[in-house]
Amino acid sequence: MTGKVDVGDLKERLTPLQYSVTQDAATERPFTGTYWDNHDDGSYRCVVCHEVLFESKEKYDSRSGWPSFYDAADKAKVVTRPDNSLGMRRTEVLCANCGAHLGHLFDDGPRPTGLRYCINSASLDFQKRAG
Q1: Does residue 118 have an active-site annotation?
Q2: 86 exposed, middle or buried (CB, 10 Å; 0-12, 13-18, 19+)?
C-alpha cells in the first residue's frame, strides 16, 4: 500500500461511519448503505484516496444488502488478506493504494468469476458516467 493517509484529515472529511468502516474495519448494516441498490452507470472509487476500484458493469444484486461486484475494475487496485475476526474465516478486501478496509471477498458470486466482492457503501464514492 502506497498512499499515506493523514488521520486528522480523514476525521474532518469522512463521516463517522466512513471513518469507522475504512479505518477500523467496521461493517455498515445491510440494506442501509447508499449504493447497495444503485443501478446507475459509473465507477466506484475509494472514499479515502479516490482510486477507481469497481465499475457498475461488474455490479450485481447479491441480495445481501451490500454493493456486490463479481470483479474489480483492476485487480491491482485491491488487495486481500485473511480475516479470522468474529470467529469466522473470511477474506478481507482493502484498497491497494491507501489500505482502506472495503469489505470481504466470497466465492459464491456469479459467472464469469464466481466471486462476490461484498463492499461497504461507506467505503465507496460513486462517480456517475456522463451521457
Answers
A1: yes
A2: exposed
